[in-house]
Amino acid sequence: MQSIRRSFVTERSKIGYIRFTIESYDGMALVTTIDPQKAIIELKISPGCEGMVLELVEALRRDEGLKIMEVT
Fold first, then answer.
1. Which whole-number Å values give the CA distances from 24 to 35, 37, 40, 71, in the listed order?
2. 7, 24 in Cβ contact below 8 A?
């Protein structure tokens, strides 16, 4: 199985925090900055972890007030 890739746009100043938070859940996902100027990040989600990672992204939006929107 291959990783699932999802792209998001956020605030530039929050990229490090998002990376640290998501990658602290060992093995669930990796965060890569695609475009630092536009603050586009890509999550490479391990197979079977998509639901948990998307719940985490939603919690960061809701509980931390982060602006994270999926790029379609």
1. 22, 25, 20, 23
2. no
What pLDDT, in 10s, does the model give residues 27-59? Answer: 999 999 999 999 999 999 999 999 999 999 999
Query: 25: part of which helix (H) or strand (E)?
Result: none
Task: Please enumerate in sequence order all residues whose Cβ is within 8 A of that of 11, keeping only pairs 6 or more positions apart, or say none.
Answer: 39, 66, 67
Instruction: Decide if pLDDT at 64 tops 80.
Output: yes
Sheet holding 69-70, edge to edge: 29-35, 40-45, 4-9, 69-70
Residue 9 Cα to chain centre, angstroms: 9
Distance CA 30, CA 25 (A): 10
